[in-house]
Request: fold
Amino acid sequence: MTQRLIVIGGDAAGMAAASQARRRRGPDDLEIVTFERGHFTSYSACGIPYWISGVVPERDQLVARDPATFREKFHVDVRLRHEVTAIDLGRREVVARDLDRGGEVRERFDILMYATGAAPVQPDWALADVGGVFGVQTLDDGAALRDWLDADPQPRRAVVVGGGYIGVEMAEALIRRGLTVTLVEQAEQPMSTVDPDMAELATDAMRGLGVQVRTGLRVTGLAERDGRVSAVHTTEGPIPADLVVLGLGVRPNVELAEAAGLPIGPSGALRVDRRMRVPGVDGVWAAGDCVESLHRVSGMPVNIPLGTYANKQGRVAGINIGGGYATFPGVIGTAVTKVCDLEVGRTGLRERDAVAAGFEFVSVIAESTNRAGYFPGSRPMTVKLIAEKPSGRLLGAQIVGWSEAAKRIDALAVALWNKMTVDDMTALDLGYAPPFAPVWDPILIAARKAVDALAASGR
Ligand SMILES: Cc1cc2nc3c(=O)[nH]c(=O)nc-3n(C[C@H](O)[C@H](O)[C@H](O)COP(=O)(O)OP(=O)(O)OC[C@H]3O[C@@H](n4cnc5c(N)ncnc54)[C@H](O)[C@@H]3O)c2cc1C
Reply:
């Protein structure tokens, strides 16, 4: 008998699951219906800042597979602009609202794939009905922001609220569009995904780009004129603005799941097992920003919303739904970003994570260059390593540097994934030629420094 899979959420995790399930089970065996409340499927939210800046010229370049492709090639019944409002596990039904035409539908499922992503953090002041205030969570959000940038009167002064990597990427995008940009961050430093000493380098780069970085102050409200934002109020007075971008972070979008009685873990995200199955309920799967994962270094459940995980987890869920066998082995939090040409990479634990997980450790910072010092284009590169005491096991790494810095984090991620010690790392056979690295690669220099620090600490 034909089974019915309902997918809630038509982006990375949901559509990766749908396509993998379809590859293994034909339409006569498995009917697939996707509910997506937006206008797009399988889009790259990660690309939004680059579309806003104009580096990526066309919106549709961010769409990997459109609904027509899913319908025709994958036989997936994609229902756009349909928001699922309830899950009835007893009747095995979902309730969805048609956002354009109104009205509700109830649809039966045998298998449910929950892939609702993350919801942006929105303080009360951001909920006011004022024109010119935008999130950048979905492609629809990005499109609304682009329209505002192109409309008459054109905004000239932007305030980006929140200095996470999305806020930083948006600040750069708006500078590139010719706006005056102020980035407001409540903490003492933006870029909290790296330790403050490394974040300082990124902050300097932002200031160098012309972004006014205001730290240690909080936005308390908005001022408006004729329905359009005219300033943000902060704990240190108003900042004029014709455009406000919210980058205050996200939380797992688990409201529907919670209301249906699905298990929420300590990170606030949905619990899943290694096969991306929601434990305790038959035939319910989940993946992406809404679920929690095992952190392979701390051993703790974490919710780290990254596209790289959403795609992998969705694929694992889809293979299993399709009758195959696949597992998701956990995460180590590897991420990269850039501020203009300054690149930032990180993997594993920051110092504060290592403290929270109860590790004793040393941390070192090594200054080097991306290429041989004499080679044209040689620029500074800073590598930070955190190593467990006394074992020497690598716990975390961060890199900040100009060109070719960020993707060097991948070598460190592989070392971390395989539980290498910094002692082992000093002898890693990394590639060398003057255009690519100094003869002692920055990673090797940092590893040697960490070994010295461990010895000095008495191990
Ligand atoms: C600006 C920006 C830049 C980013 N850059 C990077 C990066 O460089 N690298 C990286 O790894 N990650 C990046 N990310 C994160 C990455 O985009 C997400 O981790 C990824 O999109 C998560 O995929 P997902 O399918 O879990 O959730 P989402 O992409 O959020 O998709 C969930 C979908 O579900 C829909 N939905 C939610 N609730 C319902 C409902 N009740 N009914 C119907 N539909 C619903 C939403 O409309 C949405 O389309 C970035 C994110 C943003 C916003």
Summary: Residues 307-321 form the longest helix (15 residues). The pocket of flavin-adenine dinucleotide is lined by residues 8-14, 35-38, 45-46, 48-49, 83-84, 115-118, 136-138, 166, 253, 256, 288-289, 305-308, 310 (CB under 6 Å).
